[in-house]
Amino acid sequence: MKFTYYGHACFSVEAGGKTLLFDPFITPNPLAKEIDAGKIAADFILVSHGHGDHLADVVAVAQRTGATVIAPYEVGTWFEAKGVKNVQAMNHGGAAKMDFGRVKLTSAIHSSSMPDGSYGGNPCGFVVESSDGNFYYSGDTALTSDMKLVGELTKLRFAVFPIGDFFTMGIEDAVRAADFVGVSKFVGVHYDTFPPIKLDHKAALEAARAAGKELLLPAIGETIVV
Ligand code: NI
Ligand code: MN
């Protein structure tokens, strides 16, 4: 499956013939200044929670592409109020069939408030199933034993975990999360963007390797096959 990294926790995955864009935060991210948010393709935009570093470019990309936004209920209805036409406002534990396959919202241990201070519901992760394979993006979260259920219910090709620490899991917990969900390789996101989440890349890669896991750290703008 093709995975493209756009910096912070923003990435896209090609699944079931569709482009799924996650947590777009491009224009305010100085590390992603080479990326033109005005050119990114998306059939679906999946938003894990209401924090600004996960949704800055949602409205613009959705309006340009006509993409369907998939998000926790309060985040989805907030986007509807902003004029986004196609919204699937779901909630935790709920799954739905979509053009690319199936998506299910999982729990995440974090917080969620919208940029204007309004209630953002609870943060989520996503399990995506498609004919090309299945994957899990945990969203911003602490390590939680709930992740074991994800691995029990779905055979995953790879996972995407935050590894920057401070606001989310750090690398040690992300490695355990990889064990919990039963993947041998995972992509690290949510690091380097802000001073508290500066990552020692070498140490992170080594920590994963020592635990028998492959940590993938694509460059911003890079597409890898996972
Ligand atoms: Ni957050
Ligand atoms: Mn975040």
Topology:
Elements: E1 2-5, E2 11-15, E3 18-22, E4 44-46, H1 58-65, E5 68-72, H2 73-81, E6 87-90, E7 95-98, E8 101-107, E9 124-130, E10 133-137, H3 147-153, E11 158-162, H4 171-181, E12 185-189, H5 201-210, E13 214-216, E14 223-225
Parallel strand pairs: 3-4, 4-5, 5-6, 10-11, 11-12, 12-13
Antiparallel strand pairs: 1-2, 1-14, 2-3, 7-8, 8-9, 9-10
Helix pairs in contact: 3-4
The chain binds nickel (II) ion (NI) and manganese (II) ion.
Structural summary, described in words:
The protein is built from 5 helices and 14 strands. It has a single domain, classed as Metallo-beta-lactamase, Chain A (4-Layer Sandwich). It is an alpha/beta fold. The longest helix has 11 residues. It starts with a strand and ends with a strand. The protein binds nickel (II) ion and manganese (II) ion (MN).
Strand content: 25-35%
Contiguous runs where pLDDT drops below 50 for at least 5 residues: none
> For the terminal residues, how far apart are their CA atoms?
5 Å
Strand order of the largest sheet: 6-5-4-3-2-1-14
Indicate the overall shape.
globular
Residue share in helices? 10-25%
CATH topology: Metallo-beta-lactamase, Chain A
Q: How many domains, in number, for the residues?
A: 1
Q: List cofactors, ions and other ligands.
A: nickel (II) ion, manganese (II) ion
- Calculate the mean pLDDT score and round it: 98
Helix count, DSSP H or I runs of 4 or more residues: 5
Helix/strand/pairing category: alpha/beta
The CATH class is: Alpha Beta
The total beta strand count reads 14
Secondary-structure element string: EEEEHEHEEEEEHEHEHEE
Sketch the major β-sheet: 7 strands, mixed
